[in-house]
Amino acid sequence: MRPARFALHRPTSLREALALKAEFGDAATFHAGGTELLVALKARVLHYDHVIDIKQVAELRDIRILDGGTLSIGSLATHHVIANDPLVQQLIPGYAHLSEHVANIRVRVAGTLGGVLCFAEPHADAPTMLCALDARIVLTSATGQRTVSSREFHVGEFATAREDDELLVSIDVPPQLPGDKSAYRKFGHTERPAVGVAAVWSPQGPQRLRLWVGAIVAVPGPLSGAQEAAESLPPDAPFEDVWQALEPVITADAEKIDAHDDLHGGADYKRHLITVLAQRALQECMK
């Protein structure tokens, strides 16, 4: 099916893009990689009179280090670019690995990180890992700029904290502590994850473990019991001892998740996957 007719706008600056959105309001939407939006437009699930193609806004593609060591990833950076960026590979190699395994090569080359976050399809990889990394989402509009925690950005299925007139500018990942390691593991029958688990192990941090699960419900969530239990573990404990202490807690955390049977698997099966994937992610962090 073809999408309904719309006017296509191609701004070359952020200011111009925001001005177009302010002019057309609810009748307009931003378009980046299009791997999600175009499917919805063709299916006529969504309709807009104006589509603002922001691919020519070069300032949204940058991946750079900000003052203080924060890694800033422009919203138009594609999964393929992120996976191969030297800064990402050096500072958060776990996220580079995630990006290298998103969906398929067509999606990785065209799909943007900002687009995935704004579309808010629950069965996605990036949101879970960004929550574990405590990333910040930078939003801007014609009237100003604000920052939202990645842990508060997704508020429901296909719903985010972004206001309609706002454009996601960048994803800012704070500097990790020395020795911090991160990993993401997922499982799914299709190119979308049925369950994804992200882990950040911090030998020197006050919070030893950050463990988040996504795709199983509408928004990513922490495995809080496991995170609390890890605080009492010694930083130099071998993986076998850490896992012996955390496995029953992670299993208990998983049982509390209100999962549902769907095309991605049965609820009990997906809860079981959380423990399996958490073990694999944590083991990768502690190599």
Structural overview:
The chain is built from 12 helices and 14 strands. With 287 residues, it is an alpha+beta fold. The radius of gyration is 19 Å and the shape is globular. The strands form 4 sheets. The chain has a 5-stranded antiparallel β-sheet with strand order 4-5-10-6-7. The protein has a 4-stranded antiparallel β-sheet with strand order 11-12-13-14, with helices on both faces. The protein has a 3-stranded parallel β-sheet with strand order 1-3-2, covered by helices on one side. Strand 13 and strand 14 form a beta hairpin.
Short description:
With 287 residues, this protein is α+β, with helices and mostly antiparallel strands. It has twelve helices and 14 strands.
